[in-house]
Design a protein that fits this description.
about 25% strand; alpha/beta; six-stranded mixed sheet; Protein-Tyrosine Phosphatase, Chain A; Udp-n-acetylmuramoylalanyl-d-glutamate--2,6- Diaminopimelate Ligase, Chain: A, domain 1; about 35% helix; UDP-N-acetylmuramoyl-L-alanine:D-glutamate ligase; 3 domains; 26 strands; eleven-stranded mixed sheet; 16 helices
Length: about 475
Amino acid sequence: MKVLKNILYKVSIESVIGNTDRPVVALQYDSRNAGKDDVFIAIKGSAFDGHEFISKAISQGVTVVVCQELPVDLVESVTYVVVLNSAKALAIMASNYYGNPSENLKLIGITGTNGKTTIATLLYELFKNAGYKVGLISTVKIMVDYKKYPTTHTTPDSLVINSYLNQMSFEGVDFCFMEVSSHGIHQHRTEGLNFAGGVFTNLSHDHLDYHETFSEYRDVKKSFFDRLPSTAFALVNGDDKNGSVMLQNSKAKQYTYALKSYADFRVQILENQFRGLLLQVNDNEVWVKLIGCFNAYNLTAIYGVAEILGLKSSETLRLMSALDNVNGRFEYFISDTNITTIIDYAHTPDALKNVLETINSIRTKNETLITVVGCGGDRDRTKRSKMAHIASVLSTKVIFTSDNPRSENPDQIIVEMEVGVEAQNFKKTMSITNRKQAIKTACQLAEPNDIILVAGKGHETYQDVNGVKSEFNDYKITEDFLKQLNK
């Protein structure tokens, strides 16, 4: 049984009313899950304030309340702990509750706008193939060695993170690679974790619906590196102007990777084809199955992490050559009629630009490039016109469509996208709100040797409309339509 005073270690406490020698069954921040002898942490969120549910939690048997503001009516049998920040307190308490599992393995955090999932997932695969026990916490899945678990957030809440890290520690995992989102950092989900290293990929236009300004978005990312200990490493993209910002004030040992500038880990693209890339990494050549300049960056980061963590260069290069594309990240197939379809998660202007420029750098220009793209609802509205502009400039034909409209009107989202299309590119575009119909139309328009890019959803297997998630898989739908048209 856990004891409250031990779980409160390192929490910034303002005052305590009651006994801290109480036994604790579990930590809860959702009053609906609270039970006898649990600790209820009242968190002020964007949608709900946990302080409003303190009395409900107590009525269900909670004996300890952690809060930022004391309720008016105190219950004598309950211990109240007033803290500066409940979300931060939850994260530290979660780590203490599970015995600080991040200290029992090497936890590496990957942050940035693009590339987090690819780098984290491929590092997991590379170290698994090198013979280590490895964990993964990503947008797509959570892995504890070979055991797979579903995930709903890029960075899960602190209780979930520590629960899985505890399981990894129990299983003897050596390394865990974890995506660290700006939301997760800002909401203190990574507080109390002992990171052995951090990777910065890049910074571009995204999440300004949440962070409001680009500088705030950047500074939230930077705070992750500010908190790394001197025993950790910080590996940043030297070609991104924000890479040097991440390293300012960081106590971690500093490294850089780059394609265009001098760096500790430098790569040069020798060949770029749909079959893969021939790279020169530092002084060594390696052929990889991944495609495009953005993946050259991802692979250089992977090479850097592997070398920093002690793998031999020759072994790392051998393992890199065997890596496959991550689900929904430049995932492609070629139909029986020789139509190439690419499914990619690109949902930011920079990511879409990278994918389209990669396709254009490989294709002969004799074929048509048809892009199907939309923008999510209840998210950063300022990127909609930018993404439409990029798609219309870099594609032969573009179909604007719906992409998880959530509570917004999907037709209105498309209207906001169309604003970004310049007059000379109008004739290239059409709008079909129904995403399935948009994909079908792209398949009907495509001829042998043409290329279809379906962007925005990638690995997702649902469409979110007004809070209802319906089954929707871009890869399967596109593949099925091309098979039907070939009959």
